[in-house]
Amino acid sequence: MKAYLAGLAVMVAVCAPQVAMADDPRDPAMRSAAARARDRAEIQRLNRNQLEYVRRRDAGYAKDWAAYNAAQGEGQGRYAPRSDYEETAYDTPAGDARRDAAAYQQSRRQYEQDLAAWRHAVAQCRNGYYEYCAR
User: Fold this and answer.
1) What are phi and psi of 129, to 5 degrees?
2) Phi and psi for 37 in degrees, rounded to 5?
3) Residues 6+ apart with CB under 8 A from 73
4) Cα distances (angstroms) measured from residue 111 to each of 67, 115, 118, 134
5) Which of 2, 13, 58, 132 is the most core-located residue (most Cβ within 10 A)?
6) Does the predicted TM-score (pTM) go above 0.90?
7) Alpha-carbon radius of gyration of the chain
8) Is the Cβ–Cβ distance between 113 and 106 less than 8 Å?
9) Hey, is 134 helix, strand or coil?
10) DSSP secondary-structure letter at 85?
């Protein structure tokens, strides 16, 4: 175990300075303007490559989503295409939203009644009325 810890300590001591120098503004290799220009050019090349990759990937996604939407018959009937940035997900008449809200209120009232009955049964059970314990 001690040999393992000693080996680990040596490895950390050897690797830590290189990791610390990765973004060091006082890196001796970056003192010349030419070295900084090469570094800047390499970063720009990497960024361009990544941008190209992301554009190709997104174009593929867009093509796949278009095929999916066509297969689903999007644009027909009640669920027409809509922007991802719309404020609501409802694409239905206001009456549907009101009906949904009323149904939610009714189910919430039923839940509150059931919860009150359960709490009453628990209290009765704890008070010794064991017929309430089976509920």
Assistant:
1) -90, 85
2) -65, -40
3) none
4) 43, 6, 10, 20
5) 132
6) no
7) 33
8) no
9) coil
10) T
> Which pLDDT score, from 0 to 100, does residue 27 have?
80
Report residue 83 as tokens. Answer: 């922007």
Say if residues 30 and 39 touch (Cβ distance below 8 Å): yes
High-pLDDT (> 90) share of the chain, %: 34
Cα distances from 107 to residues 64, 90, 96, 97, 100, in angstroms, run 39, 21, 16, 15, 11
125 burial via Cβ count (<10 Å: 0-12, 13-18, 19+): middle
Those residues with Cβ within 8 angstroms of residue 126's Cβ, 6 or more apart along the chain or in another chain = none
Residue 42 parent element (H or E): helix 33-72
Amino acid at 75: G
Place of tokens 């720009």: 44
Say whether 124 sits in a helix, a strand or coil: helix
C-alpha dihedral, 11 to 12 to 17 to 19, nearest 10°? 100
Cα 49 to chain centroid, rounded: 26
| Start-to-end C-alpha separation, the chain | 58
CA 69 to chain centre: 23
Tokens of 32: 């010349």
